[in-house]
Amino acid sequence: MTVPPESPAAALPPGGAASPVALRLQLLGPMQAHSAAGDSVLPRGRKARAVLAVLALSAPRPVARDFLWRLLWSSRQPEQGRASLRQSLHELHACLLPLGPDILRIGRGSVSLNPDRAQTDLRFLSQVAPDDAAADACAPVELGRLLADLAGLDPAFERWREAESERLRRTARAAAEAALSLQTGYTARLAAAERLLAIQQDHEPAWRAMIDAHIALGDRAAALAAYERCTTVLADLAGRTPAAETCDLLARLRAPSRTGAGRNGSGQSRRGVRLGVAPLRALDGHDAALSLGLADEITASLARFRWIATIAGRTSGDEPDALEPAGRDVDFLLDGTLQRGGGRVRVLVRLLDQRAEGEVVWAHRFDRCAADLLNVQDEIAAEIAAQVDPELLLREGARAAGDSAADPSAYQLVLKAVPAIYRLDEGGFRRAGDALQAAVARDPGYAAAHAWWACWHVFLAGQGWADAADAARAAELAERAVALDPADARALTIAGHVRGFLQRHPDEAAALHDRALALNPNLPMAWVFSGLGEAYAGRHEEALRRIRSYQRLSRFDPHGFFYETALMVPHLFRGEHEEVEAIARKVAPLKPGFASTLRIQLAALGHLGRAEAAAEVRGRLLRLEPRFSIAETIARTPLARAQDRALYAEGLRRAGLPE
User: Are 36 and 22 in contact (CB under 8 A)?
Assistant: First the structure.
């Protein structure tokens, strides 16, 4: 029998409308497949079942035939493997044909399952806010039992099955973490924490959420019981004791009146800056509503940055810098002026360091058309937040670097490290890594320390200074950062970049970046990292759109050398080599030791045929990475598409890089 090829007509049911689900698959435990009427349509052959499982877990993406036979007949010669695959597809087609011709799509080079007509018992895993039925389906998930009856089918398939189990576990955990971060009511947080713990028993932030919810609901006995279970689970599964934050909850149970002691003071408990936001002074005296509205938007935009504690205030009397008493104890103050004229709005904003007698550390002017004042508020507030965050990091980093305290806190260690990461001189960069390692050791529950150390490992790899162990460490740190604070956009996008750049999982990276942008659309790093993820996946138009969003928010970002280099990537693979070279000429002088800029520039120069310029760039690159070659480049590139890898390699080859 000849299996019908894929055709456009088979893609839609009669009439072109979406059809109801016709195939229901159970993939956890022994595999099952039923029609909508409840009849079993599971193939008898285990290999045919395995093909169906792979298609279901890959949907809506098609699966290459070569991938399937290598996965299920890995010990056979190519012709034998392809023949065996044809036989299994024949069996699978015969089983599914009664459900409709649009269930299975078989082409010359690939096979796919129509996701609109098939449904699996894993469909709830990625839901952030599941309904009751979905929650019931997720809670008992034992992902290690994925396709249990197909275990041992083929060594390659077994490795794939284990990798899929881990991928699904990460997906389920990420969705459950997001759900927990979105809950505000304590009863809802309790349910979300239980769902997360059903997926990962030793998820300590979930245990903390559960204990905290019990305390808030007045059930001290349940809180103590949860703490004891947490301690036991961590010891049994992870061989560790609870983090300081978890122990603090026990202290709250024993001494409730001391719950918030020291939260914003100095020392180990402090993890951020306090920033006061004053309403802008309306120079013509008639824009009080716009002034207050803009201050509220700025406060809300800055509050999305987890390390910035924003303090809203009202101006007091005629003092332009004065906040009401509740807001006076701040590290920095953001104030400014507002005026309208000729159909335009002008806003002047300045950032004042209150610990340096009000020294101005940043100032900017925004001019906008006054036709849509709500849009004006949104745009200006977003840009202020995006630009203030790195300025605060640099200012606080400089202050921490000048502090000679013998016993710096984890927060101070992180602040010292961040500017050194971006300076990229190898000695200082290595010391930054040591500082971040010390910060994590000092405060194991500090999400930002884990995130920035993961980011340090990304730069380590980008400079060609990393090995396989460093990549694995980056993944571990990034996952830990997200687990500690699932609502930290910076931690999420760093985790996404690790997933896409180092681990080469573009779909998982995209999900993390999208979550980061949903939490904080004013974070330039998230736009750039997500754009790079799109470029790695071959979606270069979308990559350009995302990376250019950083320019809208923060065109003169202190870390612009990295962001502009990211812009070179999609331009290169769109064949816009002149544009790549133009960007490189602007960026390279800002950070001569940034290897990524030189690599992309070198490929562009190769395609442009500029041998002399290529020789100069190649020399600088090889001084940074003496062993750099085309083979090494292709081996470690995160580019998913073969044509992109080929274009990159050919550009480097034409530029004279050794094979």
Answer: yes
pLDDT (tens digit per residue) in 285-340: 667 778 888 888 898 889 889 898 888 765 444 444 444 433 457 899 999 999 88
Which of 375, 355, 280, 356 minimizes the C-alpha distance to 321? Answer: 280
Residue 237 sits at the vertex; the CA angle it makes with 231 and 239, to the nearest 5 degrees, is 70
Residue that the structure tokens 């992309």 belong to: 600
User: What span, in angstroms and rounded, lies between the C-alpha atoms of 103 and 232?
Assistant: 48
Q: Round the CA-based radius of gyration of the chain to a whole number and report it.
A: 28
Location of structure tokens 């349940």: 222
Same domain for 249 and 278, yes or no, is: no
Q: Are the C-beta atoms of residues 641 and 650 closer than 8 Å to each other?
A: no
Instruction: Please state which of the ranges 246-255, 258-267, 587-596 shows the lowest mean pLDDT.
Output: 258-267
Residue 1 burial by CB count (10 A; 0-12/13-18/19+): exposed, middle or buried?
Answer: exposed
Cβ-based burial of 232 (10 A; exposed 0-12, middle 13-18, buried ≥19)? exposed
487 inside domain: no
| Cβ(445)–Cβ(484) below 8 Å | yes
Q: How far apart are CA 194 and CA 180, in angstroms?
A: 10
Phi, psi angle pair for 655, to nearest 5°:
-85, 0
* CATH for 145: 1.10.10.10
The mean pLDDT value for 164-171 works out to: 84
What is the residue whose two structure tokens read 């520039």?
A: 601
Identify which of 464, 503, 520 has the alpha carbon closest to the alpha carbon of residue 633.
Answer: 464
In three-state secondary structure terms, 120 is: strand
Residues 397, 389: Cα–Cα separation, whole Å:
12
Tell me the pLDDT band of 148, cut-offs 50, 70 and 90: confident
Q: Which range, of 349-353, 521-525, 620-624, averages the lowest pLDDT?
A: 620-624
Please check whether residues 286 and 234 belong to one and the same domain: no
For residue 5, which of 108, 110, 109 has the smallest C-alpha distance? 108
Q: List % helix, strand, coil for the chain (3-state, nearest 5).
A: 60, 10, 30
Closest-CA residue to 601 (of 615, 590, 265): 615
Residue 441's nearest CA partner among 428, 432, 450 is: 450
218: CATH: 1.25.40.10
Distance between CA atoms of 137 and 125, rounded to whole angstroms? Answer: 8
Q: d(Cα 145, Cα 224) in Å, to the nearest integer?
A: 32
Question: What average pLDDT does the chain have?
Answer: 83
- Distance, in Å, from the CA atom of 108 to the CA atom of 91, rounded to the nearest integer, reads 17
Range of the domain at 208: 187-258
Domain boundary among 351, 383, 415: 383
Question: What is the Cα–Cα distance from 272 to 585, expressed in whole angstroms?
Answer: 37
23 and 120: one domain? yes
Domain count, the chain: 3
Q: Tokens 């930290």 belong to which residue?
A: 488
Instruction: Quick: pLDDT tens for 39-84.
Output: 999 999 999 999 999 999 988 889 999 999 999 999 999 999 999 9
Report the C-alpha gap between 261 and 248 in whole angstroms: 10
Residue 32, SS3 per DSSP: strand
